[in-house]
C-alpha cells in the first residue's frame, strides 16, 4: 500500500482531487465535472466560486482575519449577530459564534444547562432528543443524537439522555394511522418528561426537518405547536437544530418559520457561510440569557476561532447574496419543481417508497416492497451503492439513514439555491439512471 498521510473518511478509498468549483458544478484535476446535487453536506447553498464572497473575504483578510474573542470584538461579528437576530423568528436573539454544527448544538446544550443553573435549578441538565436525529459528532452532541451508527463506538462516553418518538408518518414509530393518531409522537415527549421528571430536564432538541438520520422527514402540521406547548408547560427549553435547515434551505430563512415557532435556542452551521469558511452559531433568546446576564455573566463555552472576523465577514456576504439574488424564494420555487420532477421519476422506479421534503431539502426513501414498505436488508447497503453509482456519473447526492432506527435506505437531494431548472432536469435524469443501475 502506498504511504499516505491524510486521514480521509475511508482510509483505503480513492477520492478525486477537486481543482475548482463554479455554480452547481465541481471539477476534478482530471477535468471531470460533478453536479453538486447535495451542496456537499447540504452546505454550499449559494453554489461554488461566487465572486461577491471571494471579494468580501479578500477585503476582510486585508484588514484583519483573526482576533481573540476574550480580547476583542469586531465589526463583522457584531453586525452578523445583529443581522441574525433581525432575521430569526421573534427578533430577540443573542449569537454565540463557533466553527461547526456540532459546536453549535453542544453550545446550545451548555447554554440551556447554564440557564437553569443560574436560576438555581442545577438538577435540570438532561437534554431530550428524538430517536431519528443527528445533532453532531462531538461527545455532547452525540449524547443527544439518536443516530445509531455514529454513536455506537462511543456509547460508554455518552450521557444516557432519553430519546423520544420521531414524527415519521411514512413508518409511524407508534404503529398508528397518521390520519387519526392525535399527534401521538408529540405526546410521547410528555410521556418521557413525566417518566424522567421535568426537574431533571433542561431542554428538548429537534431538527425542524430530520436530515441525515431520516432523509428530509417533514413532521405533520400541528406537531411543533404541540411540542412547544408541552415544553412551555413543563419549563423545558426548546432548541431548534437548524444546522441543515437554516439559511434559506427549506424555502424560508429558518426551517421553524414553516410552523410559526420561535425556538428558545437555535443552532446554525453549514449554509451560514455556505462552505466558504467554517462558521456556525448558537442563537439564544433574551429570556434564555437573562439569568446569566444577571448572574455569572460568563457563558461557559467558546473556541479559539469563535467569532473570527474573516468567517463573520463571509457569513454577512452570504446573507447579502441570498437577499440580493432572492434565494429564499428561489429555494421555495425550485423546491416545488424538484419535488415534482422526483415524484414523476419515482413512478418509473418501484424501489422508491417515498418522495418528501421542503424547499431545496428533498429526500427519497427506498424500499424492497412499495406496498409493505419493507426495507432492503442491511447487507445490501443500497444507499452506499447508489451514492457511488451517482458519483461515477458525475452526480453528488447525500446518504441518509431511513427508518426509525436507521434500518432503511434514504438519500438527500439538496442542490445550491442557484440551480437552474435545466440543471434540475439533468440532476433527475442522472439520478434516474443511477437508480435503474442499482435496482
Ligand atoms: N446538526 C445537524 C442537523 C446536522 O445535519 C449536522 C451535520 O450534518 C450537525 C448538526 C453537525 O454539524 P457539523 O458536521 O458541522 O459538526
From TrEMBL:
Entry GO MF terms: pyridoxal phosphate binding; transaminase activity
Keyword field contains Transferase: yes
Superkingdom, taxonomy of origin: Bacteria
Segments forming a coiled coil: none
Sorted UniProt keywords: Aminotransferase, Pyridoxal phosphate, Transferase
InterPro entries to which the protein is assigned, alphabetical: Aminotrans_3 (IPR005814), Aminotrans_3_PPA_site (IPR049704), PyrdxlP-dep_Trfase (IPR015424), PyrdxlP-dep_Trfase_major (IPR015421), PyrdxlP-dep_Trfase_small (IPR015422)
Protein name (record): Aspartate aminotransferase family protein
Organism per entry: Paenibacillus albus
Amino acid at each position: 500500500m502506498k504511504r499516505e498521510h491524510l486521514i480521509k473518511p475511508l482510509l483505503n478509498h480513492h477520492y478525486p482531487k477537486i481543482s475548482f468549483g463554479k455554480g452547481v458544478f465541481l471539477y476534478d484535476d482530471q477535468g471531470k465535472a460533478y453536479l453538486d446535487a447535495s451542496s456537499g453536506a447540504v452546505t454550499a447553498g449559494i453554489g461554488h466560486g461566487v465572486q461577491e464572497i471571494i471579494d468580501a473575504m479578500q477585503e476582510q483578510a486585508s484588514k484583519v482575519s483573526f482576533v481573540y474573542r476574550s480580547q476583542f470584538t469586531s465589526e463583522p461579528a457584531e453586525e452578523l449577530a445583529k443581522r441574525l437576530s433581525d432575521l430569526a423568528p421573534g427578533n430577540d436573539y443573542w449569537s454565540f459564534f463557533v466553527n461547526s454544527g456540532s459546536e453549535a448544538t453542544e453550545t446550545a446544550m451548555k447554554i440551556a444547562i447554564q440557564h437553569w443553573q443560574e436560576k438555581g435549578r442545577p438538577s435540570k441538565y438532561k437534554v431530550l432528543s428524538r430517536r431519528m436525529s443527528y445533532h453532531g459528532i462531538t461527545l455532547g452532541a452525540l449524547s443527544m443524537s439518536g443516530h445509531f451508527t455514529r454513536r455506537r463506538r462511543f456509547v460508554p462516553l455518552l450521557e444516557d439522555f432519553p430519546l423520544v418518538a420521531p414524527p415519521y408518518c411514512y413508518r409511524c414509530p407508534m404503529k398508528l394511522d397518521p390520519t387519526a393518531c392525535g399527534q401521538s409522537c408529540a405526546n410521547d415527549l410528555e410521556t418521557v418528561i413525566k417518566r424522567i421528571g421535568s426537574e431533571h430536564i433542561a431542554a428538548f432538541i429537534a431538527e425542524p426537518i430530520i436530515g441525515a438520520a431520516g432523509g428530509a422527514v417533514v413532521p405533520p402540521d400541528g406537531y411543533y405547536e404541540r411540542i412547544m406547548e408541552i415544553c412551555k408547560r413543563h419549563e423545558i427549553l426548546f432548541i431548534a437544530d437548524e444546522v441543515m435547515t437554516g439559511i434559506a434551505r427549506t424555502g424560508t430563512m429558518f426551517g421553524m418559520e414553516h410552523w410559526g415557532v420561535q425556538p428558545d435556542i437555535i443552532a446554525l452551521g453549514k449554509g451560514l457561510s455556505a462552505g466558504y469558511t467554517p462558521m456556525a452559531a448558537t442563537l439564544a433568546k433574551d429570556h434564555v440569557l437573562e439569568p446569566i446576564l444577571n448572574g455569572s455573566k460568563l457563558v461557559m463555552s467558546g473556541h479559539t476561532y469563535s467569532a473570527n472576523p474573516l468567517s463573520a465577514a463571509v457569513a454577512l456576504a452570504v446573507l447579502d447574496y441570498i437577499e440580493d439574488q432572492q434565494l429564499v424564494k428561489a429555494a421555495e420555487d425550485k423546491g416545488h419543481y424538484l419535488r415534482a420532477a422526483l415524484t414523476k421519476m419515482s413512478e418509473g422506479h418501484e424501489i422508491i417508497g417515498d418522495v418528501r421534503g421542503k424547499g431545496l431539502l428533498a429526500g427519497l426513501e427506498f424500499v424492497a416492497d412499495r406496498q409493505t414498505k419493507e426495507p432492503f436488508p442491511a447487507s445490501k447497503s443500497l444507499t452506499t451503492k447508489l451514492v457511488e453509482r451517482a458519483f461515477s456519473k458525475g452526480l453528488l447526492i447525500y446518504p441518509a439513514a431511513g427508518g426509525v432506527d436507521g434500518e432503511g435506505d434514504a438519500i438527500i437531494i439538496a442542490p445550491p439555491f442557484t440551480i437552474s431548472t435545466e440543471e434540475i432536469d439533468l440532476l433527475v435524469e442522472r439520478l434516474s439512471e443511477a437508480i435503474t443501475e442499482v435496482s
